C-alpha cells in the first residue's frame, strides 16, 4: 500500500516529495508510503512514547481467538450519485465459534446498528433462528459486544446485522469523493480504503488481518453508475430507479483487502489478460500506459514466481482516483491509486512520473502474492508484506522493462535513504508493535516496514543466489497460501531452501539466528575494516548512530560480506564470508599498496569504514579509472563516507575528497549519492561569507559532465539513467547561476510561451523553474494559466512548484495569495494550496515572501489547513534561516504566531536557527571551510 489527501494531511501525508533544496518537487520512484509515519508524527505531533505505552495494552483491543469468521454476505445501498453521504446495509457473518460462550465480539466504528439476529448453521442450507441479541458498544476499543441469553456450544453460527452509516469525507473506510467533468460539473463517487483497520467503519466485521474469510458483495446503486469490486460481476438485478450489482464470491482473504467503488468511471480493457483500468471519463485517454504496464508486469511476475495470478483470482482492475489518502493500495483484484501515480499522458508525463507509475504498479502487483495470497498475521509483521513489494517494485519493473534499468535505482532510492533514518536512536526493529489502535497501527507504515525490509530481503536474495531465492519464495507462498505468516514461516522457507547441503552459514550459526539478527533488532551495523599492512585486517562491528559513537553498545549482527581487491575481476562471482563476533582478525587479500573494497555493490544492509590509507587508495583508484570500482560500490563509498564523517567516525576531509572524485563520474547512482551530500553543505553554506568558494567547488565538480549534457532537449534513444544524471547536474548548474544554464532555460521557456516549440516534459521542471528567474512576467502568467487549465495531477504539481521558483517579489506575493483564493477564483484542492505555500521555499526570495505572507494571512492557514500545517511551514523557514538578518525576520514572525503555535513549536524553530547560525564555527563547518580554501578549483 501507499499513502495523500487534503483532509488526511494530519495523519496520512504522501504525494509529491518536496525536496528541501531543490528547484522542483518530484514524485520519487520510492514508495511514498515509506514516509507515512514520518509525516504523521510531524504533522500531528503524536508522542511516540504514548504509542509505545499502547503496545502494552494491545491485547485489550484484539478479538478473542475463539471467534473465527468464515464468510460474509454483504449488501450495501448508496445514493452517492446525488452526493448523499447516507447509506445502509446488511451483513451476514458466518462464524466458527470454537468454545462455549455467551459473548460475540464484532468490530464497528461510527455505524448505527438497527437490527441483529443469530442463527445456528446446521448445514450450508439449513439454519435455525436462535435469538435477537442484546449488545453494548465499546467505542474506545471499537467493539460491539453481543450477549447471548444462554451459552452456545462450539459450532457454526450466522450473525445477521443491519446497519446505517455515513460515507466518510477523510478518504478512509467507505468514503465519498468527487471530480469535475469536462463541463465543470462536480460528480460524486464512493470508494473504499480499509487498510489497516477501517473495514469496521464501513460495516460490522471482524477486522484483523489473520481472520481471513470469503466475501459475497452486492451493491445497490443508481443505474447511471456502475459498481466494481474485487471479483467479476456475477449478475445484475434491479427495479425502477435502481440497480443491484452482485459479485462472485472471493477466495479466502483478509478483510482489509476487500474493496469496492460506485462511480460513473469508464475503463480501458485487455480482454485476454483480464485487466482493466478505470478513470474519470475526462481522463480515460490517460489509461493506456498503465494498462500496458500492468499486463507486462503481471506476465513478468507470473513467469518469475511460477504461480500464475489467475490460479488465485480471475481478474485484476486498476482505478485512478482524484482523492485517495493511501496513494496506492493492493486490494486483491482491485488496485487503487491516486491519479498522479497511475495515469500517463503522452507529451505531458515526465520520465520521473513514468518511473513512479511503473514501479508503483509493480509494487501493488507484487502484493497480489506477498500480502494477498500470503498475509502478515498481525501488523507487527507488516514488513513481510511491504518488504517484498518494495523489492519487486524495482525488480519486477526492471524485468518488464529491462532497457530502463530500474534495478539500478534501488540502492540510491531505497537503501541509502533508509540507512539515514534507521541510524536514529528512535528507530524500531522490523518486527515491532505499538499497539492495536488506529494511530498505533498507522505508525508502522514507515520506511522500516518498506525500505529497510526491502533492503534486507535484497541482501537475503543475493546471498542465497537468484535460483535458490526464487525456489524459496515460491515454496513460501505455496505453503502458506490463503493463510497468514510471521517471521517463523519465512525462516522455515529459508531453512528448507538451503537444507540441501548448501554450506551457507558458518558452524554454530543457524538460519533463524541470522534472519532474526536483522529482523528483531533496531538499526544496523557499521563494519570497520582496519588494515594492519602486515598481511591482516582487523574487522569490528558496532551499531551505527547518526549522532554518536557508542563503544558499549552490545547489539551484534551476523554479517555476510564480500571483499574485492585491486586487480580482481569485476565479472567473477565473489565468495561470501561471515562475520559473527564483535571483532576478529582475518588475512588480507590485497597487497599493502592495493586498495580493497568490502560489501561489494552494497549488497549488505550496513555501512563500511576503512582506515585512512585504504580510503585514499580507493579515492585515487576512482580518479584514475572510475570503472575500476563497481557502480553501486561507487555510490556507497560516497554515501558511507559522508555519513561516517557526519557521525565523527571519519575525517571530513576524506569524505570531501571522496565526494570530489565525481567530477570524473558519468553514471547517475554515484551522482545521486553526491547530490545529497552537496545538498547538505549547500543548505548550510548559503548566506555564509565563503559561499562563493562553495559555488566554485560545485562548479568544478559538475564542469566536465555539464558540458556533455543538453539542458533543454531529449533524444529519442536517451537512457533513463542519463535523464536522471542530466537533471541532477543541470539543476546544480542553474542553482550555481552558471550563465549558459540560465540562458538555455530562459530561451526554451520563451520559445514555448511564444508558441514556437513546447518544452519536452522530461526537462520541463528545470526549464520552467529556472527560465522564470530571468524572463518576463509574461512567462509567469503563461505558466499560471497553464496550471489553471490542466486537469493532469502530475503536470499540475510540476507547474505549482515551477511557479514557486520565481524570485520576483510581486509575482511571489501574488502567487502565494492564490493559495487562499476561493474555489471560484482558483481550482486548487486543499492539498495543492499547501503545495503552493511550500513551492516558494526553493529560494531565499521565496522564503522572505512566505514570511511576509504568513504575517498577513496566518489566520487563514490555521483555520483552513490547520495549526500543524502552519507549524510545518514555520519549521521549514527555520531550516532555511542561516544569517542574523534572516533570524531577525523569523523571530518577528514568531512573536506574531506566539498565540497560535504551541510553545514547543516556537522553541523548536528557534533551536533550529541557533544550530544553523552556529554551524560555521563547528568542527564540521571549520573543516569544510579549510578544505574549500585548499581545493584546486576548475570553474566552468
Automatic annotation (TrEMBL):
Its EC number is 3.4.11.-. It holds the Pfam family ERAP1_C. Residues 289-518 form the Peptidase M1 membrane alanine aminopeptidase domain. Its cofactor is Zn(2+). One of its GO terms (biological process) is proteolysis. Zn(2+) binds at residues 363, 367, 386. It is a lipid-anchor; GPI-anchor. Belongs to the peptidase M1 family. This is Aminopeptidase.
Amino acid at each position: 500500500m501507499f499513502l495523500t489527501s487534503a483532509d488526511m494531511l494530519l495523519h496520512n501525508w504522501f504525494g509529491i516529495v518536496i525536496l528541501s533544496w531543490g528547484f522542483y518537487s518530484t514524485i520519487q520512484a520510492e514508495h511514498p508510503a515509506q514516509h507515512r509515519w514520518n509525516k504523521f508524527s510531524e504533522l500531528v505531533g503524536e508522542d511516540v512514547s504514548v504509542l509505545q505505552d499502547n503496545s502494552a495494552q494491545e491485547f485489550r483491543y484484539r478479538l478473542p481467538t475463539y471467534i473465527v469468521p468464515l464468510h460474509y454476505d454483504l449488501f450495501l445501498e448508496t445514493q452517492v450519485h446525488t452526493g448523499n453521504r447516507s447509506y445502509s446495509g446488511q451483513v451476514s457473518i458466518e462464524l466458527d465459534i470454537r468454545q462455549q460462550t455467551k459473548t460475540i465480539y464484532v468490530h464497528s466504528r461510527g455505524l448505527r446498528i438497527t437490527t441483529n439476529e443469530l442463527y445456528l448453521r446446521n448445514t450450508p442450507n439449513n439454519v435455525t433462528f436462535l435469538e435477537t441479541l442484546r449488545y453494548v458498544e465499546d467505542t474506545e476499543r471499537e467493539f460491539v459486544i453481543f450477549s447471548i441469553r444462554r451459552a452456545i456450544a462450539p459450532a457454526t453460527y450466522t450473525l445477521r446485522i443491519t446497519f446505517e452509516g455515513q460515507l466518510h469525507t477523510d478518504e478512509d473506510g467507505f468514503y465519498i469523493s468527487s471530480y469535475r467533468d469536462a463541463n465543470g460539473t462536480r460528480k460524486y463517487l464512493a470508494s473504499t480504503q480499509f487498510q489497516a483497520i477501517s473495514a469496521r467503519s464501513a460495516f460490522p466485521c471482524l477486522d484483523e488481518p489473520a481472520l481471513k474469510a470469503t466475501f459475497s458483495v452486492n451493491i445497490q446503486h443508481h443505474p447511471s453508475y456502475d459498481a466494481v469490486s474485487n471479483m467479476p460481476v456475477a449478475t445484475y438485478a434491479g427495479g425502477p430507479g435502481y440497480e443491484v450489482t452482485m459479485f462472485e464470491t472471493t477466495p479466502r482473504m483478509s478483510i482489509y483487502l476487500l474493496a469496492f467503488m460506485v462511480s460513473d468511471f469508464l475503463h480501458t480493457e485487455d480482454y485476454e489478460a483480464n485487466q482493466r483500468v478505470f478513470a474519470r471519463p475526462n481522463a480515460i485517454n490517460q489509461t493506456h500506459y498503465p494498462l500496458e504496464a500492468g499486463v507486462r508486469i503481471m506476465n513478468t511476475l507470473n513467469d518469475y514466481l511460477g504461480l500464475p495470478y489467475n490460479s488465485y483470482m480471475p481478474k485484476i482492475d486498476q482505478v485512478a482516483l482524484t482523492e485517495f489518502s493511501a496513494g496506492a493500495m493492493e486490494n486483491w483484484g482491485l488496485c487503487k491509486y491516486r491519479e498522479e501515480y497511475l495515469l500517463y499522458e503522452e507529451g505531458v508525463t515526465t520520465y520521473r512520473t513514468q518511473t513512479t507509475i511503473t514501479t508503483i504498479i509493480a509494487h501493488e502487483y507484487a502484493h497480489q502474492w506477498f500480502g494477498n495470497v500470503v498475509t502478515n498475521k498481525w501488523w507487527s509483521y507488516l514488513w513481510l508484506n511491504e518488504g517484498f513489494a518494495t523489492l519487486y517494485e524495482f525488480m519486477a519493473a526492471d524485468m518488464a522493462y529491462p532497457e530502463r534499468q530500474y534495478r539500478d535505482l534501488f540502492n540510491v532510492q531505497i537503501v541509502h535513504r533508509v540507512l539515514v533514518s534507521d541510524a536514529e536512536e528512535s528507530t524500531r526493529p522490523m518486527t515491532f508493535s505499538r499497539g492495536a489502535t488506529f494511530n498505533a497501527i498507522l505508525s508502522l507504515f514507515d520506511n522500516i516496514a518498506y525500505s529497510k525490509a526491502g533492503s534486507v530481503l535484497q541482501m537475503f536474495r543475493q546471498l542465497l543466489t537468484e535460483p535458490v531465492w526464487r525456489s524459496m519464495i515460491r515454496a513460501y507462498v505455496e505453503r502458506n497460501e490463503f493463510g497468514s505468516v510471521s517471521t517463523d514461516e519465512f525462516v522455515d522457507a529459508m531453512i528448507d531452501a538451503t537444507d540441501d547441503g548448501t554450506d551457507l552459514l558458518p558452524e554454530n550459526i543457524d538460519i533463524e539466528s541470522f534472519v532474526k539478527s536483522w529482523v528483531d533488532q533496531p538499526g544496523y551495523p557499521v563494519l570497520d575494516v582496519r588494515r594492519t599492512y602486515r598481511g591482516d585486517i582487523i574487522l569490528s562491528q558496532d551499531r551505527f548512530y547518526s549522532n554518536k559513537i557508542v563503544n558499549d553498545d552490545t547489539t551484534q549482527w551476523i554479517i555476510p560480506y564480500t571483499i574485492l581487491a585491486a586487480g580482481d575481476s569485476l565479472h567473477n562471482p565473489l565468495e561470501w564470508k561471515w562475520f559473527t563476533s564483535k571483532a576478529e582478525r582475518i588475512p588480507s587479500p590485497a597487497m599493502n599498496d592495493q586498495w580493497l573494497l568490502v560489501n561489494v555493490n552494497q549488497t549488505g544492509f550496513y555501512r563500511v569504514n576503512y582506515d585512512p590509507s585504504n580510503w585514499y587508495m580507493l579515492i585515487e583508484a576512482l580518479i584514475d579509472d572510475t570503472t575500476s570500482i563497481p557502480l553501486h560500490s561507487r555510490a556507497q563509498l560516497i554515501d558511507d563516507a559522508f555519513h561516517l564523517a557526519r557521525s565523527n567516525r571519519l575525517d571530513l576531509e576524506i569524505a570531501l575528497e571522496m565526494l570530489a572524485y565525481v567530477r570524473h563520474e558519468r553514471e547517475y547512482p554515484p551522482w545521486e549519492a553526491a547530490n545529497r551530500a552537496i545538498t547538505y553543505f549547500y543548505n548550510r553554506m548559503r548566506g555564509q561569507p565563503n559561499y562563493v568558494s562553495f559555488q566554485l567547488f560545485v562548479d568544478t565538480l559538475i564542469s566536465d559532465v555539464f558540458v556533455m549534457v543538453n539542458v533543454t532537449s531529449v533524444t529519442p534513444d536517451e537512457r533513463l539513467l542519463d535523464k536522471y544524471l542530466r537533471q541532477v547536474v543541470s539543476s546544480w548548474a542553474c542553482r550555481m547561476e552558471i550563465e549558459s544554464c540560465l540562458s538555455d532555460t530562459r530561451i526554451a521557456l520563451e520559445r514555448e510561451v511564444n508558441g514556437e516549440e513546447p518544452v519536452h516534459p522530461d526537462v520541463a521542471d528545470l526549464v520552467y523553474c529556472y527560465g522564470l528567474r530571468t524572463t518576463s512576467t509574461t512567462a509567469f502568467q503563461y505558466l499560471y494559466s497553464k496550471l489553471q487549465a490542466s486537469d493532469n495531477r502530475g503536470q499540475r504539481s510540476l507547474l505549482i512548484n515551477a511557479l514557486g521558483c520565481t524570485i520576483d517579489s510581486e509575482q511571489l506575493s501574488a502567487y502565494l495569495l492564490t493559495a487562499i483564493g476561493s474555489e471560484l477564483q482558483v481550482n486548487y484542492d486543499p492539498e495543492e494550496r499547501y503545495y503552493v505555500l511550500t513551492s516558494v521555499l526553493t529560494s531565499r526570495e521565496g522564503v522572505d515572501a512566505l514570511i511576509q505572507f504568513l504575517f498577513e494571512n496566518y489566520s487563514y492557514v490555521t483555520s483552513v489547513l490547520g495549526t500543524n500545517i502552519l507549524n510545518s511551514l514555520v519549521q521549514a523557514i527555520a531550516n532555511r534561516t542561516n544569517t542574523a538578518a534572516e533570524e531577525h525576520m523569523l523571530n518577528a514572525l514568531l512573536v506574531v504566531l506566539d498565540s497560535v503555535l504551541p510553545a514547543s513549536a516556537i522553541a523548536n524553530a528557534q533551536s533550529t536557527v541557533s544550530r544553523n547560525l552556529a554551524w560555521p564555527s563547528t568542527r564540521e563547518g571549520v573543516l569544510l571551510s579549510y578544505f574549500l580554501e585548499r581545493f584546486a578549483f576548475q570553474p566552468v
